[in-house]
Each structure stands twice: as C-alpha cells, then as structure tokens.
C-alpha cells in the first residue's frame, strides 16, 4: 500500500445506536485481496487489503443486515472483486460497478445476476482521468435497460457545470456524500442551497455520508459541523436518502474514523424511528432489492 495510506480501524466500538431490523450499509467497498484481485495499473492510489470477510464481519458488529458495495477506483473497470463479494453474500449485498462503454451484454447480465444494480461515474479529478461525457451517456443508455441507476461522485465546485448533464441522464441519479459540500460555508450558503434545490427533482437521490471527509472539526466533536447538512436532507427528502459507512475509508488523511462512532451519528441526522427506518431500511431496499 502507499506509504502514507491510513488503514481502517482495527477495533471499532459497538455503537450505542441500535439500527432498525434490516438496516443497510449503503456505501462501502472491498479492496482486493491484491494477491487474488490485483489493483488496476492505472490506479491513482494503492490501498491496503479490505476483504469481503472483513466487511461482512464489520456489518455484523455494527448491527446491520445488508451492504451496498461500490466499486473502488483502485480496481478500475475490473469488477471481479466486487462480483466475488456479491456472490458470497447470500443475497445480503448489492453492487455498484464501474464499466467501460464496450462492455458486452453478456457481462452486464452476469453482473446483474450477481447483484449489481448501478454504475458509478466519477468526476473527481484527483482520483480518475477525465472521461468524455458522451462515454457516460452511452453507458447510461445501456444500463437503463436493466433498470440500473447511476451513482455520481463529484466535488461541490464542479456541480453547476454538471447539472444539465445529470438532469439529461435516463436513470435515477444518486449523489455520493451530498456532492461534497464545503461545510465551512454553512447550510444556508448558495452553494449548498443549489444542491438542496436540485434535489427537488425526484430523479435525484443522495447519500448523507462521510462526515469524516467533510468535517473541519473532526470526531472529537461528533462531526457536528456536518450534521446540519445531513439532517436537512434527511428531513426534506426522507424518501430519497441513503446512509453508509464508506468502509474502509479510502484516501483519508486527517484521521481514520471509528465505524461505531459513525453509526452513532445516525440519530443526530434522522431523529425519529420513522426517519431512521426510511434512511436505513426502506429506501435502500426499494432502490437495490426491488426488481
């Protein structure tokens, strides 16, 4: 792994918050193991191993029932590690793949049978090379026929330019990590309010995830500077929000979060049992397990 890579927390706390029965960790990853599933030669980073067995053990420890595993950029367009994890999950995991425009119909069908239900479009320049938008359009047209959706990973300054493109896509679109707002500006800033307004379009969903990435004050204050952003979206769009750990937290530089402590943020952003059930059970089940 990279010399400055921060490995995932080896002993997370047991959360004080008990998730509702059937709760889904709707954003997590598997890395390798590299000796079985080598990382892509075009990768921008080299992580430590984070296996399906370790992910499923964490799921049990945190009190969750299911996972949505998102293809990590370190594996490029080779989804073998993802498919392997899905096939070992006993139908308790679904997947989001990264694919090339020339992928065969047979391979798409194979991934669908394994549990893939979406593709990820990554616009974060430090993680991936630029992809022409017409390539994304060709992929979107093909996966729409399977009933899949699109996950988009971007940073807040890039959102305005992407809005017309995202609105034109033929599928549901899910934003990773609330489109990465600058939390120093506050929830009322026009930048975040632009995203809140965009979410009025019912084709858009978002993940209220990764306070550890967005916070400027860190875990000692329970990521309280990010909580208002997450809470606003949960309350305004309760039927189109998802939550996940982001385990094993790739490319963290400031600190490695305790996954149990991240779970304990949930009741701060979804303050009633009804909102918690929507966020953790009903919404991910509707998006990933209802065919």
Automatic annotation (TrEMBL):
Record's keyword annotation contains Hydrolase: yes
A GO molecular-function annotation: hydrolase activity
Keywords annotated in UniProt: Hydrolase
Bilayer-spanning residue ranges: none
Pfam families, per database record: Amidohydro_2 (PF04909)
InterPro entries associated with the record: Amidohydro-rel (IPR006680), Aro_Compnd_Degr_Hydrolases (IPR052358), GLI/LigI (IPR047874), Metal_Hydrolase (IPR032466)
Sequence ranges assigned to domain Amidohydrolase-related in this UniProt record: 24-288
Name this polypeptide is given: 2-pyrone-4,6-dicarboxylate hydrolase
